[in-house]
UniProtKB/TrEMBL annotation:
Name used for this protein in its record: Chaperonin 10-like protein
GO molecular function, one term: metal ion binding
Cofactor: Zn(2+)
Cellular component terms (Gene Ontology): cytoplasm
Entry keyword Metal-binding: yes
Keyword Oxidoreductase: yes
Domain Enoyl reductase (ER): 12-352
Length: 356
C-alpha cells in the first residue's frame, strides 16, 4: 500500500478547500485505521471553514465518515477486524482523568469522549474524513449495517446522531402518540422527521423555505409528516393549534441557528412542552421568559448521541428504511462544496465519494 493518500485540507479560514497529498496517518496500537469510502458535509463544516471553532491549520475537514477498517491496533479490544464496514463519530480519545470523564464514570461506569475536556474532535479541531484514510477510536466507531450504504451511512455519523439524540431528549415528557415538530427541514431536519415518525410521534414539519417543505414530503411514504407548515405564513400558529386540538406541541426540535426561528418555536409548545435547539448561533438565543415560567416549558440541550445510542439508531434506520436525500460528489469536486451548499435550492445532504 502506498504511504501517500489523497486529501482535502483547510489552509486558511474562509478560503476554498485545497486538494493535496498527505502521508497516511500512523495507527497506534489502541486505534483503528479506516479507509474512508464516503464523507459528509454539514453546516458545522461551514462554521469550521469560517473559523468559528479555533483550530491549527492546515487541517483535514469533515466529521461524517463511513468506510472499512484497514488496520486494527494490536491492543484494541473487541472483535474488530480488517474489512468491517463502519461509521466513525467525531469525538475520540477520552483522557479518563478530567472532570467530564470522572462525572460520566460515576454515572455510567465508563468514559464518554463527548464530554472529555481533552477530547479530540475530528474535522473540527483535528484531521477528519476528507481523506482516503483516517484514525478512529474503537470506542466511537460504529458497525454499519449491510443494508446501509456508505453514502447513506456517512451523514448518520453527525446529522443522524444529532437528530436522534435530540429526539431522545424529548422523553419522558413526550412519548408515542404525542405531537412533535421539526423546525428547519434540511440535512438534520429531514432525518429527525423520519426518526420521530419511526418512534411513534405525530409529526409536524416546519420550514419557511419551499425547498424544505418539499423535502419533508419526499421522505418514504410511511414516514411522511402528518402536517407541513410554512412558518412565514400568518396562519402558521393557528394551523398548529388546530392540529393539536388547541393544546400546542408536546415537543419541538429546532434544526436551524436562526434566533428568530428558535424564539418562535418555543411559543408553539403547550403546557410542559420540551424544546431541543440544535443550532449554534453567533448571537445569543432569546426566549420568552413568561412563556417558560407560566407554561412550565423546558429547553433542553443536546450535543450528539453516544456511540451506544447510535448503534440503536442504525438498527432503526435499517429496519424502517430511513434515508437521507443525497447529492453525491466526486473527490475532485470538494473545492466546489461551499458554493453548492449555500445555494438556496440545496436540499438534504452533500456527500463526497472518497474511494471505492
Amino acid at each position: 500500500m502506498s504511504q501517500i493518500m489523497r486529501a482535502a485540507q483547510i489552509v486558511k479560514f474562509n478560503e476554498p478547500y485545497e486538494l493535496c497529498d498527505r502521508p497516511i496517518p500512523q495507527c497506534s496500537e489502541h486505534d483503528l485505521l479506516v479507509k474512508v469510502h464516503a464523507a459528509g458535509f454539514c453546516h458545522s463544516d461551514l462554521q469550521v471553514l469560517r473559523g468559528q471553532f479555533a483550530a491549527d491549520l492546515p487541517m483535514i475537514p469533515s466529521h461524517e465518515p463511513a468506510g472499512t477498517i484497514s488496520h486494527v491496533g494490536t491492543k484494541v479490544n473487541g472483535s474488530w477486524k480488517v474489512g468491517d464496514r463502519v461509521g466513525v463519530l467525531n469525538f475520540k480519545h477520552a483522557c479518563g482523568d478530567c472532570v467530564g470523564c470522572h462525572r460520566n464514570l460515576q454515572k455510567s461506569g465508563r468514559s464518554d469522549p463527548r464530554f472529555c475536556q481533552k477530547r479530540e474532535m475530528a474535522g473540527f479541531k483535528h484531521d477528519g474524513s476528507f481523506a482516503e484514510y483516517m484514525i478512529a477510536d474503537p470506542n466511537t466507531t460504529i458497525r454499519l449495517p449491510e443494508a446501509v450504504s456508505f453514502e447513506q451511512g456517512a451523514p448518520l455519523m453527525c446529522a443522524g446522531a444529532t437528530a436522534w439524540g435530540a429526539l431522545r431528549k424529548l422523553s419522558p415528557d413526550a412519548g408515542p402518540g404525542d405531537t412533535v415538530a421539526i423546525v428547519g427541514i434540511g440535512g438534520v431536519g429531514h432525518l429527525a422527521l423520519q426518526f420521530a415518525k419511526a418512534l411513534g410521534y405525530k409529526t409536524v414539519a416546519i420550514d419557511n423555505r419551499p425547498e424544505g417543505r418539499q423535502l419533508a414530503l419526499e421522505v418514504p411514504g410511511h414516514l411522511t409528516p402528518d402536517l407541513v407548515v410554512d412558518s412565514a405564513d400568518s396562519c402558521a400558529d393557528d394551523k398548529i393549534l388546530e392540529f393539536t386540538l388547541g393544546e400546542g406541541l408536546a415537543g419541538v426540535v429546532v434544526c436551524t441557528d436562526s434566533v428568530q426561528a428558535n424564539a418562535w418555536s418555543l411559543q408553539q409548545l403547550g403546557n410542559k412542552g420540551v424544546m431541543v435547539p440544535l443550532g449554534l448561533p453567533k448571537d445569543k438565543w432569546q426566549f420568552d421568559s413568561e412563556a417558560m415560567v407560566f407554561r412550565e416549558l423546558t429547553i433542553r440541550g443536546s450535543y450528539v448521541a453516544s456511540a451506544d445510542e447510535v448503534e440503536v439508531m442504525l438498527r432503526i434506520v435499517a429496519e424502517k428504511g430511513i434515508s437521507s436525500h443525497l447529492t453525491v460528489l466526486d473527490f475532485d469536486q470538494i473545492p466546489t462544496l461551499i458554493e453548492r451548499y449555500t445555494q438556496t435550492s440545496m436540499k438534504g445532504r452533500l456527500v463526497v465519494k472518497i474511494s471505492e
